[in-house]
Automatic annotation (TrEMBL):
Origin organism lineage: Eukaryota, Metazoa, Chordata, Craniata, Vertebrata
Biased composition (Low complexity): 47-56
Pfam families hit by this protein: CD225
Name of this protein: TUSC5 protein
Subcellular location: Membrane
Gene transcribed to yield this protein: Tusc5
Family named by the database record: Belongs to the CD225/Dispanin family.
Region (Disordered): 1-21, 38-57
Transmembrane intervals: 65-89, 110-131
UniProt KW keywords: Membrane, Transmembrane, Transmembrane helix
InterPro entries: CD225/Dispanin, CD225/Dispanin_fam
């Protein structure tokens, strides 16, 4: 059996009586009446610069803290800051794939590891400078 692409629908206008007092019109799929397009769909061009500049930034996109992770790579706590950088990149990839929960989770871990790396790196640098100044009395 071959299926037909036509159907019967209750549409206003030219209708036939089916014996039950209800009006129906037999139409094919290609001849359906489309609703008028909204004004926003009429133009396929770019929106004006004032409309795009006043729009709020996308709220649903989670942060990946990539800049913070890259900055933490300058601290001398290399295993921790490299792992933070990897988590940041994984967070960015998850966000681009649409996994917002995973991106938020990975972004928080990247932020935590980056902050720990910066704090520990600062402590190591301060201790190194203070011990080297104290150990060298000629300065």
């Amino acid at each position: 059996l071959r299926g037909s692409k036509s159907f019967t629908a209750a549409l206003p206008g030219e209708t036939e009586r089916n014996g039950h007092g209800l009006g129906y019109k037999s139409v094919s799929v290609g001849h359906l009446e489309a609703p008028p397009l909204s004004p926003s769909r009429l133009s396929l061009g770019r929106a004006s610069s004032t409309a795009t500049s006043t729009a709020a930034p996308e709220q649903g996109r989670p942060r990946d803290y990539l800049v913070l992770a890259i900055f933490s790579c300058f601290c001398p706590v290399w295993p921790i800051n490299i792992v933070g950088l990897v988590f940041s990149i994984m967070s960015r990839n998850s966000g681009q794939q649409g996994d917002t929960d995973g991106a938020r989770r990975l972004g928080r871990m990247a932020r935590l590891l980056s902050i720990v790396s910066i704090v520990l790196g600062t402590i190591i640098i301060v201790l190194y400078i203070s011990l080297s100044v104290r150990g060298n009395p000629s300065c």
